Amino acid sequence: MLIHALGPLRITADGAQVHVGGRRTKIVLAVLTLEANWVVNIDRLVDAVWGNSPPASARTQIRICVSGMRRVFAAAGEPDLIETHPSGYCLRLSRSDLDATVFEDQVDRARSLAGTGRLAEAVLELRGALSLWTGPALAGLAGPAVESGARRLEETRLRAIEERIRLEMELGRHRDLIGELAELAAAHPYREHLHAQLMLALYRSHRTAESLAVYRSIRSTLVEELGIEPGPELSELEQAILLGLQTVEVC
User: Fold this and answer.
1) Which domain range does residue 192 map to?
2) Amino acid 107: pLDDT
3) Which of 37, 69, 187, 214 is paired with 98 by a 20 to 30 Å CA distance?
4) 109 occurs within a structural domain
5) Nearest 10 degrees: CA dihedral of 132, 134, 135, 136?
6) Other C-beta atoms within 10 Å of 210: how many?
7) How many domains does the chain have?
8) Residue whose C-alpha is closest to residue 65's, from 17, 13, 18, 20
9) What angle do CA 241, 243, 249 make, to 5 degrees?
């Protein structure tokens, strides 16, 4: 059985979709999944589902959700995944039971490969890890607890993308990356590192004017919308490009 959090929350068993329940149950499962192998206080689950306005029956309804999940897991051959503790519940998962930890392990393998100079293999491993994503993390579920966890997962995805792009540029594939980087920079207008990578890919492709235009664009965005100047990575990269240095890098 596999719990999928890298996209809409779902469960599969032997490749088949398993119906987990409605919105309330999915929120409880999402919070337990985000805190897998840790006890989650029942009050936290109540807050995740209802916020500051829980009904009098909130704790009972949480227990009903958990009972329903237990039946689903038992039917999928995993009857003991949820443990009951005096203060709440714990979802016991191995690393292969959750796509988010499968993703983390593949990213770690990629870093090990890169560390030994096997860059092409590392890129393939990162591409495989990123292929596990089917959409925004926990898409369709709302609430501070779920959204906070989803943002953490999304950050790991962006870091893996940036790492793959860095390795591909080391392999001389900068021209092939320009389109993807332009889309990523547009989708993440405040993420300076992605803009630096786009500037570098353009500069190495002998498109210096476009590279500097990327700097001017993000600087304008940061100054006008946030009241800050670009950080050292972007400003130093711009200066290196203006000086026409032959060796220009980003971390």
Assistant:
1) 173-251
2) 98
3) 187
4) no
5) -40
6) 16
7) 2
8) 20
9) 40
Question: For residue 1, is pLDDT > 90?
Answer: no
Q: Tokens 């630096």: give the residue.
A: 196
Q: Which residues, other chains included, contact 92 with Cβ-Cβ below 8 Å and sequence gap of 6+? A: 36, 37, 80, 81, 82, 83
Burial of 53 (0-12, 13-18, 19+ CB in 10 A): exposed
Residue 184: give its domain's CATH number.
1.25.40.10
The pTM (predicted TM-score) of the whole model is: 0.92
Q: Which residues neighbour 26 within 8 Å (Cβ) at sequence distance 6 or greater?
A: 9, 20, 141
pLDDT in tens, 91-115: 999 999 999 999 999 999 999 999 9
Domain contains 136: no
DSSP type of residue 98: B
The CA distance from 31 to 223, in Å, is: 37
